[in-house]
TrEMBL record, chains A, B:
Upper classification of the organism: Bacteria, Pseudomonadati, Thermodesulfobacteriota, Desulfuromonadia, Geobacterales
Amino-acid positions noted as binding Mg(2+) 5 in the UniProt annotation, renumbered to this chain: D217
Residues at which Mg(2+) 1 binds: S48, D49, D126
Further remark: Reaction mechanism of ThiL seems to utilize a direct, inline transfer of the gamma-phosphate of ATP to TMP rather than a phosphorylated enzyme intermediate.
Protein's UniProt name: Thiamine-monophosphate kinase
Chain positions recorded as substrate binding sites: H56, E264, F320
Gene from which the chain derives: thiL
Recorded GO MF terms: ATP binding; magnesium ion binding; thiamine-phosphate kinase activity
Domain PurM-like C-terminal: 156-305
């Protein structure tokens, strides 16, 4: 069935009837705006990410369910990086007139599955025709007590640098997809990343983390944001970078460039005072999330990379600039 | 200067340095998410609208400043329709790689001028490359006391139907632009609509309005939303539709079809009990905003249109469905 047969308001009805009620939503889908209220003592954290066909995803290898999951996941990862719990989201879609309603249904199945997993309620958005491919824009809202919110600007000289999970998987997965591979853990990490929502909130609540960000642009770029906003430097020992077995099998002779600059891993990168490493690692172990110490915060400038023998390491490229 | 020379982070810095601080913003641009808090006793109202090149705007006749103004204005109009005062907004842009930075600067000049006029602070968003034209997605946040929020679902049988300003101007302006006309009041109404923010909040605070919506899809379509969600009908007398002199000069023999179905006027359409018309009209007169009574709410279904002699009137088309 083509979208034109269902119409804009038919599409909105199809979506709206699947949305549960929730106490954080004072006024849901159906009015000019939704009404929300954070829990007592909390502020609302809010973030937006846009995904464009041909830039952020390729429909020749993104299935609609995974695309729906990822579209929301990348927004929830931004909330996780602040230590916030997701509460609501708005979804705006620019849809080619020829798109099949079944594609939208499967896309929404992915969006709403991720929403259920992490406790986010769809409260609004927009739908419109697109003359230029599928356009997805999501705004996600979460909440946290203001004194617990974790910012990029709070790293201190001497802090240890931690990262969850493994690095480079999503970038390696993209390369595999472009070469025709359609399954495996690396491909899954690219197509359906998991936002570290529980870990982000637990780290914020625990109180021993200074600065936090999610690894979306690439480790060097994102750690660089922490350095710039905190007025500090960082050194990273490349042999400490957490690399998966699957990644090591495909990454070639030098495993570090993609792990340092490949984006979209959506892991948490954070700093805490030395002496807190046992607390951090014990907390993350309880959550079942591998966490590694990869370096420390210095009184220098920018991110410096070192080899095991103490000599400087220079990667081929650093970070992802959308217009570079 | 091309965007590629400035880069993504350079662009964000260019924008961020122009944003003022405000007490409603706990945490502004620069982190993974912004932090906001409504005033005591208020809820947050939130709405998103997407504008796509070739669908919502045509760069051959939209100048960048007006486009910036309109992109935010259509979102603020949704807040106005709830009776909410604007507080913050997020802006996501998909930008063709070849776009001139000067275009973006002028576009932002328009966005931020409208933001200043209505008290909205830019707190975040996203920027990315687009392979298919300019993509604009805005999420606007406002606030109001929950008991004062005006919904589509609160119209009651016997209510009078009011509309601010004049109808059909924006649709007529679009037709003129497509025929090569580049100035005049109708063209201005299409390119740079004014959201009825002060009037929306004043009507909510006054307490005598039942249901409200903004006229974005067209009068019949938007009044139809009120009817559907309130479980009522409405009758409108076409000769009572407020039409501007400029509109009457260009609308041809039958002035009503475009006034009934042309969208984008961004006027407020609302209902109030009979007996309140003096209060409504006095309030709107104090705000300097022409307001007309065009019909009433019935116990029927849908919107019925009548001529002065009491006979039914049938317009050529009703409302704007993006996929119809």
């Amino acid at each position: 069935m083509k979208l034109a047969e269902v119409g804009e308001f038919g599409l909105i009805r199809r979506i709206a009837e699947k949305i549960p009620a929730h106490r954080s939503v004072v006024l849901g889908i159906g009015d000019d705006a939704a009404g929300i209220l954070p829990s007592a003592g909390c502020i609302t954290l809010i973030t937006s990410d846009m995904l464009l066909e041909g830039v952020h995803f390729d429909l020749s290898f993104s299935d609609p369910i995974s695309l729906g999951r990822k579209s929301l996941a990348v927004n929830l990862s931004d909330l996780a990086a602040m230590g916030a719990l997701p509460r609501q989201f708005l979804l705006s879609l620019g849809l080619p007139r020829s798109i099949e309603v079944e594609f939208i249904d499967r896309f929404m199945e992915g969006v709403l599955a991720t929403a259920r997993s992490y406790g986010a309620i769809l409260v609004g958005g927009d739908t419109c025709a697109s003359k230029s491919g599928l356009v997805i824009s999501i705004t996600a809202l979460g909440e946290q007590r203001p004194e617990r919110v974790l910012k990029r600007s709070a790293a201190r000289v001497g802090d240890l640098v931690f990262v969850t999970g493994t690095l480079g998987d999503a970038a390696a997965g993209l390369e595999l997809l472009q070469r025709g591979v359609r399954e495996g853990r690396l491909v899954d990490r690219q197509l359906a990343p998991e936002p570290r929502v529980a870990a982000g909130a637990a780290l914020a609540d625990a109180g021993f983390v200074h600065a936090m960000i999610d690894v979306s642009d690439g480790l060097v770029s994102d750690l660089g944001h922490i350095c710039e906003l905190s007025g500090v430097g960082a050194k990273v020992e490349v042999e400490l970078l957490p690399l998966s077995e699957e990644y090591r099998r495909v990454c070639g002779a030098d495993p570090y460039p993609l792990a340092l600059s490949g984006g979209e891993d959506y892991e948490l990168l954070f700093t805490a005072a030395p002496g807190q490493e046992k607390n951090v690692l014990a907390l993350m172990q309880r959550l079942g999330l591998q966490t590694s110490i990869i370096g420390e915060i210095t009184d220098g400038k920018g991110v410096e990379l070192f080899r095991p023998d103490g000599s400087p390491y220079s990667p081929a490229k650093s970070g992802f600039d959308h217009f570079g």
